[in-house]
Amino acid sequence: MRRLVLAAAALALGMAPRLANAQQQEKKKPPVSMDDMAGMHHDSAHISMPIPMPAGMPMIPGLVGLTPSVTEFLPGNGTDPGKLPAARPTRIVQLRNRDTLDLTAGLVRRTVNGRTFVMYAFNGEVPGPLIRVPQNATITVRFHNRIDLESTVHWHGVRLDNRNDGVPGLTQVAVTPGGDFVYTVHFPDAGIYWYHPHVREDVEQALGLFGNIIVDAPETDYYSPANSEHTLVLDDLLVNGDTLIPFGKEGPDFALMGRVGNVLLVNGESGYTLRARRGEVVRFFLTNVSNSRTWNVSFGGAPIKVIASDVSRFEREERVASVVLAPAERYVVEVKFDRPGRYALVNSIQAINHYRGEFEPQADTLGVVTVTNEPARPDYSRQFATLRAHPAVSKEIERYRPYFDKPPDKQLTLTVRTTGLPLATVQFMTIDTAYFAPVEWVDGMPDMNWLSTDKQVRWILRDDATGKENMDIDWHVARGSVVKLRIFNDPMSFHPMQHPIHLHGQRMLVVSRDGVPMRNLSWKDTALIPVGSTVDLLIDASNPGDWMLHCHIAEHLGAGMMMAVHVDGARAGDQR
Questions:
Q1: Distance from C-alpha of 448 to C-alpha of 50, rounded to nearest angstrom
Q2: What phi and psi values does residue 252 have, to the nearest 5 degrees?
Q3: pLDDT in tens, 169-197
Q4: Are residue 172 and residue 264 in the same domain, yes or no?
Q5: How many CB atoms neighbour CB 343 within 10 A?
Q6: Domain enclosing residue 136, as ranges
């Protein structure tokens, strides 16, 4: 266990740390200059952080009194919450082919843990309406923007026509407050999807603009039988007392690690509850809509069977102890509650305190499933005990297997560049003995993270072949081509962190991690790239258009970590 107490003491004395680690002598450190203090706000009247700090974690002395270099923003501009409609729970909207839905983004009064805030909602519901459609349906969505920011709707994971993807500057013009836009959305793949804005996700998505889509396959046995099914939308909110922590008006704050909330929510509420009968098999559709948090959820020891992920079922069902969801990922699981009693829905992770350089287990109860002694009818015990294989998935993947071992067509390195951060942050982050976990489950440095904005932090996708970065990368691939993309997450960058990489409009296979082949595949649209890992993705570039590839940590996207992949319409064999 690495300890950074000596470094903290050095900072308290105004001294630059001189700690060294013999195993990391070759690591190059960015120089510290006077520019590292540029652009920061300092208010001597503030003597403590206005954001909550974990118990036992002190603020770094050199950061006392600093505030982010952005103007504070909260929705509604001082609107009286009492004059707004109260947010309502999600309702299911069953749509058929050629149906039309009106979807309005508006201000609502939302109560969380007894505290009332002005927030956003689609159609006044948090999460937004659960859209349920048959596979291959096409619907019309009339979007009405009635919030105080520009917005769009992105149909996450759906392989739809490019004009309807909801990306301002690439597929459409952002919808101004009071404006409208009509989307035509086609659903070619069964599974669980979601929708959210693609403008200032760090604000709009965090404040309630998200909703699920379930696309039903025509096969009645697409999933095994279950007694009931439920959607669980996992989210978090950053609150201090009775106040939402403000957002940056000009651009994101919390740019280093993303905004990690201290109030954990399921379907927009704390304290999820569900009643089930003894022996009941429950199908859960899980979606992570958090800005930055990666979850690891379980059901109080009840057996879990994982069935599907983003865009398809797995080749084979598997039993798991828990389910890890990075931002934007979805999983379909079945859980059997064998005995009467209470089962805690738990998020169990390994927290890290960067200040002390210590790890500790952390478990948060998200809710409770209460199981009665009444037996479930029908009894699906036999079906739950069976781990089904899905030959149709394997057969579809089979034609892609010859590409699994070929050299990569494209390579990206994930890294970061900073300027103008507080001197104390730069000193702390460049200590030779600092340790970075493959996955940051919590915000282990909230003071430094809060002070970082997109003015100081630029997250980078770098094309290994050309050295170009982010939107300067110019990748064209032919429609119908199979593209092997290798992504390396540089562990020696200023602040290495995991990145959930999302590709719009296509589907992909995660074929290997750190050279180890994946043995049970499903089609994905989002893949988690841990620190220091190399992940190979095989992209089925079948959908023509200009598509975003980006990190789905909202603040990383807002700090530049995005690029476009152009899938050209001709079905040629060559890529350029």
A1: 13
A2: -65, 145
A3: 999 999 999 999 999 999 999 999 999 99
A4: no
A5: 21
A6: 81-216
